[in-house]
Predict the structure.
Amino acid sequence: MQICIKGSCEAVKLYQKAFNAKLISEYKNEDGSYIHAELDLLIQGVMKRIT
C-alpha cells in the first residue's frame, strides 16, 4: 500500500503509536520530512507494509 500525505513525520509517529508499526526504512528531506518511509504493521491479524 502506498500513501502520500502532508505531515509525514507526524503520520509515522501516529502509525507507530496506534498500530505498533515498525519503521523499516526511511529517506528524509533536508527539512526532516519523509521522502519515503516503510512501515510494517498488524491490522486485523494481517501483516501490512506501508511504503
Remarks:
- The chain has one domain: 8-50.
- The mean pLDDT is 82.
